[in-house]
Amino acid sequence: MDADEFFKRVSTRSGIHGRDQVIAATASVLQALRARISHDTGDNMAAQLPNEIRELWKSPPTGHPGVEEVEFERMDLDEFLDRIRTTCGLAGRNEAAEVARAVFTTIQEQITPGAADHVASELPEDIREFWEESAPPQRPIESPASRRPRASGVQLRLDRPALEPTRKGPPEGFYTSDEIGPSVATVCRSDAQLRDEILELLQASDEVDASNIEVEVHAGKVTLRGTVTSPYQREAAKRIAKEALGTIEVINYIRLRPSQ
């Protein structure tokens, strides 16, 4: 999805109207989340979002225009929502929860399941539960963290209807994640779509120099070829390709470039 569609979905789910107000609300949630997860995990997530949303992720915190790096902060769900309430000028906690849920759901519609799991793994239990409860119905998270018992006293509002996905059978030449077991979603994707997403993820990653990497996809089976400068980059490329929604298998033929 592009940024306009992202903001439209946040507006529909949160009940906030007006583009400026929706952008401010989205930025508030992103800034609060950015203060709670590592830079690497956050940047990997942001690399999969539309450009305008990615810029909001990188923008200075509200009220601190000269600050570039956001320091890690410990906060529970109440503090997390209170920060959103304050920066958005919302009336109360319930309104802040609706905004946070709207942004969380829309983010998880855009990023890979692996990226969503990485985010969840770094959150405290009550915020993690909120993140996972916000997962869209077509992308339930099946991480070990999602099966842990909920912390006592955590109450989540689940009465707001989610946007329903369009469900239909895949056209000829396409495949669905149902074919690879109890996966995260039913999706219709061509090999070309999967290849383009993997290339985009590789090029956006700070872990890999993708300038000499080629990607081939056949029926969801991904083959990587080319050269990189280190074993770490070789394994990172494989991991990124594996996290793309629809990947069944990754065959890694990437070689190490001789040092000059």
Which CATH-level-2 architecture of the largest domain? Orthogonal Bundle
Shape: elongated
Estimate the helix proportion, in percent. Answer: 40-55%
Structural class: alpha/beta
**Count of helical stretches:** 10
Biggest pleated-sheet summary = 4 strands, mixed
Fourth CATH level, the homologous superfamily of the largest domain: Uncharacterized conserved protein DUF2267
Low-confidence stretches: 63-69, 140-187
Instruction: Quote the beta fraction.
Output: 5-15%
Briefly characterize the structure:
The protein has 260 residues and is of the alpha/beta class. The protein has helices at residues 3-14, 19-34, 39-46, 51-58, 77-88, 93-110, 113-121, 125-133, 191-204, 231-243; strands at residues 213-218, 221-228, 249-252, 255-256. The chain has 2 domains: 3-147, Uncharacterized conserved protein DUF2267 (Globin-like); 166-260, Histidine-containing Protein, Chain: A.
Notable traits:
single chain; elongated; Histidine-containing Protein, Chain: A; 2 domains; 4 strands; 4-stranded mixed β-sheet; 10 helices; alpha/beta; 260 residues; Globin-like
Describe the structure.
- The chain is α/β, with parallel strands linked by helices and about 260 residues long.
- The protein is about 45% helix and about 10% strand.
- It has ten helices and four strands; from the N terminus they run H-H-H-H-H-H-H-H-H-E-E-H-E-E.
- The chain has helices at about 5-15, 20-35, 40-45, 50-60, 75-90, 95-110, 115-120, 125-135, 190-205, 230-245; strands at about 215-220, 220-230, 250, 255.
- Strands 1, 2, 3 and 4 form a four-stranded mixed sheet that branches.
- Helix 2 crosses helix 6, helix 3 runs antiparallel to helix 7 and helix 5 crosses helix 6 (about 95-110).
- The longest helix has 18 residues, at about 95-110.
